[in-house]
Protein 1
Amino acid sequence: MSVRTTAPCRPDASPAPACSANALAVLSTLLEVRTGQQLASYRSWRLDTALKPLLRARGLETLDQLVVQLLDGQDKTIGDRIVDALVNGETSFFRDQPVFDLIAEGLSGVERRRGRTRIWCAGCATGQEPLSLAMMFAERAESSGETPPDIVATDISEASLARARAARYNQFEIQRGLPIRRMMRWFTADEADWVAQPQLLRMIQYRRLNLVAEGPPAGRFDAILCRNVLLYLSPATKAQVFARLASALAPGGLLVLGAGETVIGQTGLFEPSKTLRGLYVRTGA
Amino acid sequence: MKTCLVVDDSKVIRKVARHILETLDFSVREACDGREALDACLESAPDVILLDWNMPVMSGMEFLQALRASDIASRPKVVFCTTENGMSYIRAAIEAGADEYVMKPFDRDTLESKLQIVGLA
C-alpha cells in the first residue's frame, strides 16, 4: 500500500486526552499571553491533537497532568513546548500562487528606484513562504539583472525556525505547492528528504520574533507578508499588530495578508492597493 | 467536467486515486497498463493522466513516449505517480514530456496541489 490517506496534522480517531475546564483555561491563557492568539471554540480540538506528541514524549496521559507540570514551574521549557505545539504552522510552497505573481509585479523596479529590495515574512512557520520568494526572485534576477531581495523571516516558534533554517522537507512537504521543475532546480535529495540549496538560504535571515509583544525588525520593508496570522488575534491585538506592520513598511510598500483576511473594517492604517488586487498599501500612500 | 485517466497496475492505487479525484470533481477512467491507456486516449483523450511507471505490458515511460509521438491533438497533461523517486527518474520523465511528478506515497493534498500546478484543480 503506497497511498497515505490521512494527513498527519489531522485529528485521529483515538480518544482525546482528558482535559478539565480549569486546564483548558490555563492552556488558553498561556497561548493568548504568549502569542495573542485566541483559542476559539472551533479550534479547541487542536488542544487534544496538537498536544498529544508532547504528552507522549513526557510519558503523560492527560492534559491535566501537563498543566500540573506547567504550573509547578520546575521545567522552564514546558511553556515554550506547549506554545510551539499549539501555534498553527500550516504552510506550503507558493501558497495562493497568484499572490506571488502580484508581489513580483509590485516590487518590479523597486531596486532601481530605492536600492536593494527588502521583504519581511512575518509568521514564516517552517520556511516554505520565504523559500518560495527566494526561488521566484532568484529566477527573475537571472533575466532582469536585478539583485534578489533581502528576506527577513520571523516566527514565534523556535521549533519552526529550527526547521526553517535546516530547509529540509519530507516527501509530503516538498510536494505541496512546489512545481517539480523548481524542486529539481532548487533542492537536493538527501536520503528520504529534500534540502534547499545554500544559494536560497543566503537570501533569508531567520529570527525569532513575537509579533504581538515585540517591535518589527529594524529598517523598512518594501513588502510585508503576514498571512494567516492575524485571524487568530483579538480585535485589540490585531490593531496593535497592524500599527507595527505599518511602521515597518517603506513608502509605497505592500502588505500581503492571507486569502481570507482583509484590512477593511480592521484598521485605518491600510487600504486596498488600486493596482494590485488583493494587496494593501498604507492609507494615503 | 474535467476528466482524468488513472493508469496503474495496482487496483488499490486506482481505487484511492479515483476516490480523491472524484472529490475534486473529476470524471475518472482507469487503465491497468500503458497499452490499455493508449487505447483509452485514442478513443477519447482525457484532460490529465495520472501515470504509474512500472507496469506490465507497457510501462509508464513507454506509454508517455508513444502518447507524445501520437497525433492526439489535445495534448493531455501527464502527471507521473510512482515510487521511482530518484532525481534521475524525475529528470527522465520531464524530458520525455511529463508535466508534473508525484512521488508515492501520496495523499489528497499532494494530488490536489499537483493538479493545481498543471491548471486543473
Note: Chain A has two domains: 21-86, 97-282.
Protein 2
Amino acid sequence: MIKMENIAKSYDGNTMVIRDIGLEIKKGEFFVLLGPSGCGKSTLLRMIAGLEEITAGDLWIDGRHANELLPKERNLSMVFQNYALFPHMTVRDNILFGLDARKVAKKEQDERLNKVAEIMGLAEYLKRKPAQLSGGQRQRVALARSICSQTPICLMDEPLSNLDAKLRGQMRGEIRRIQRMLGLTIVYVTHDQVEAMTMGDRIMVLNEGCVQQIGEPLTVYNDPENLQVATFIGMPQMNIFRARAEQEGLRLNGSLILRRCGGQPCPAPAEECIVGIRAEHFRRGNESTGYVLEAKAAMVEYTGDETQISFENGQGYSVVKWPGQIPAEAGEALTLGVDAEHLYFFDKDTGHRIRQDGGRSQ
Amino acid sequence: MKKYSLALLYAVLILLAVLMVFPLLFTILLSLSDNADIMNGQYWPQVLHFENYAEAFTKANLLYYMKNSVIVAAVTTFCQVALALLAAYAIVFIPFRGSGIVFGLFMSGMMIPMDVLMITNFQTINAAGLLNTYAGIILPCIGSAFGIFLLRQNMKQIPLELKEASDIAGVGQFYFFRKVVVPLSKNSIITLAVYCFLVSWNNYLWPLIATTKDEVRTIQIGLRMLSASDTQQDFRLVAAATMIVTIPTLILMFFGQSRLQEGLTKGALK
C-alpha cells in the first residue's frame, strides 16, 4: 500500500533530519511510527501526506510513484494532533468538509454522515460547534471526518496526546476497532510506547531520523536490535549496566556482581559490554537457574497490583518489578535471580545488540 | 497613596476627554444658535434653532454631495478590503519564493504618505482621462498596506493545520479562502471596512484635486464650499452641515467600536 525506498529529508540541504528509510506497509495494516520527540516521525508522516517535500528517495502509494503527487491526489486522510477542526463550522460541516470538492452527492454525504455519526457516537452533537465539545468528542469528530472521506489510507499524528489518560485508553481501543471494521490502512505516529504496543500490527522505532527497528510489538519488546530500542520500549525502562567479565561473574557498574550459579559459563560476550535486564525479569531469591545478584533495597513502591523495588547499582538506581504485593522494606537485603536468556548484551561503543549462540535470547 | 494616584489619573483622563469632546459640543451649540447671537459672542443659544439643519440641507445641497461620498466611500472600502484579503491570503497561505520580500515591499508602502504621491497620482489620473470621475477619486486609494498588514496578522493566527487538512481533503485555494479564512477573519474584516470607510468619508484633499466640477465632488468639499462661498460667514449653517456630515461617522463608531477595538488590538497581544 505504502512503499518507501531510501527516503531522506533535509530542510537546509546539509543536515539530514531523516535518513535512508525503507519500508513497506501492507494494506489493512496498523503501522506505528514510534520515537522520542524530535526523532523525525511526524516529518516522515507529513512526507507521506505530501505536506513536506521528499528530499531524496522514492515513495509509492497504492502502486503509484507519489513523490510529486499533491496531497489531494494521494487519496488519503489525516488526523492532526490538534484535530484541525474548523471552529466556525458545526460538527456536521466539519465531518463533511471537502466532500463537496470531491463531488460526492448530497444524498451520499448524508448517508455517510449518519453511518459515521452512529459509529462514533456523535449523532446528538451534529449541530454543535467544536468549542462546545469536550476533548474526547473533538477527537471523535476529527476521526469521523477522516472516516467519512472513505480513503483507504489514514494518517494519524499523535491523535490521542491531548486527551487525559482514561480517555486515551478508551480511544485506543475504539480506533483499533474501527480500523479493523473498515479495513483501513493506518499510519500512526506516537511517542507513547503503550499506544504503539497495544495498537500496532507493526512498529517502526525511529531515532534521530534513522530506523532503529521494524517489527511486531512483541518482537520489538522481546528482541530489541539495539540499546535505543531496548531502553525506549518497556515501563519501567530496562535496567542498563556497564559490565566487566570477572572470575566469578559479571561486575556491574564496577560495584554489584552478577554471580554465576553452578557451572554456568561466563555470560559476557566480551570483556566489557553493556548488559540490560528488564525489571520484571528479576526473580525473587535463589529460584533462578542462571545468575544471582545481591543488592540492598532503596525504595519500595506499591501500585496495588504490583510491587516495584529499586536498589542502588553504583551509578544510580535500578528497578525490580513483581506482580502482587510483596512485603519488603527499604534497607532490606535482596537476592535477585536472572535467567541466562533474560540478559541482553549490547556493544559498549555502538549500542548494537550482541547475540550469543544464534538467538538464544529469543 | 494609591488613591491619590488614581485620582490624578482620572483628573488627567477627564481633562483629555473634555479637550477631545469640546469641538463637538461647541459645534452642536453653534448649529442650534442664531447667527446674530454668535456674532455678538453669545455662544449659548437662548432659543434652539433646529431649522438650521433643514436650511443647511437645502442650501448647501448636502444630499447631492452625500450621494457622491457614499458611492466613493463604499466602492473604495469594498475594493480595499477585497484586495487586502487576497494579498494577505497569498502571503500567509501560499508559500512562494520571496513572499517575505513582497510583504516587506507592501509594508514599506505604509511609510510613504499619500500626500507625497498627490502630484504623480494627479498626473496618472489626468493622463488616463479620469479627472472628474468616481474612478479617478477611487483608484489611487484602493491599495492599503495597513489593510494587508492587519489581515495578515489575523490570518497568521489561523492554525496552519486547517490549511493542510483542506489540502488533504482536496478543496481548492478559493474554497478554503471563502469557507474558512474569511469567516475566521470576520472581526478584522469589519474593523478594516469601518476604518477604511471613515478614512474615505473624511478624505478631503485628494477628491478636491481629482475634481474640477461639482458632479462627482464629495461631501467634505461641499462643506468647505459652504463656508467659502458666502461672503458673510454663516457659522450656524456650517456647524449644522458639519454635524450632518459627522452622523455616519458617529453611527459607525457607535456600532463598530467594540469590534474596532478588538480587531486593532487582537494581533498585538500575541
Note: Chain B is about 75% helix and 0% strand.
